[in-house]
Cytochrome c-553 (Attheya septentrionalis), 170 residues
Amino acid sequence: TWVLCRLKNAIRSAFWANRSAMFYAFKKDRTLDTMKLAVLATLIASATAFSVGKINVGDAVKAGAVAGALAVGVTATPAFAADVAAGEQVFSANCAACHAGGQNVIMPEKTLEKDALDQYLAGGRKESSVVTQVTNGKNAMPAFGGRLSDEDIANVAAYVIKTSETGWDE
């Protein structure tokens, strides 16, 4: 129904919007506590039950199932969409000393260019591989897992992958 659809869209966008009301519901490890998720699921179920027009039983059942799962202590870890612009800022502050312009001052053959990432990055040229490399470090590259948040690392990964596709400014 229209009300449920609007509510779902608002919730989805709030999960990924920095500094939104939903953002503050996350703990440091980006999981919602069980009580907050149960309240959220109850609100969705209520919106379904009181929406104008016909009630979509499937949506009501799904919302009820979520509420039931939360009642027994199951928590969810929603993904957040990486922010390329924020990734560029984090990259400039933390990575550019060695990787300015997509280069590598320590190991010149291992650049951040598309072909080099395909060849040298464990797991291939994808965001999850960059996240692993940045989090854990490798060879001369230090680990940033303890220094940057998971969100910052995901943003840097998105920036590196996108810029490797569009080309680095020299």
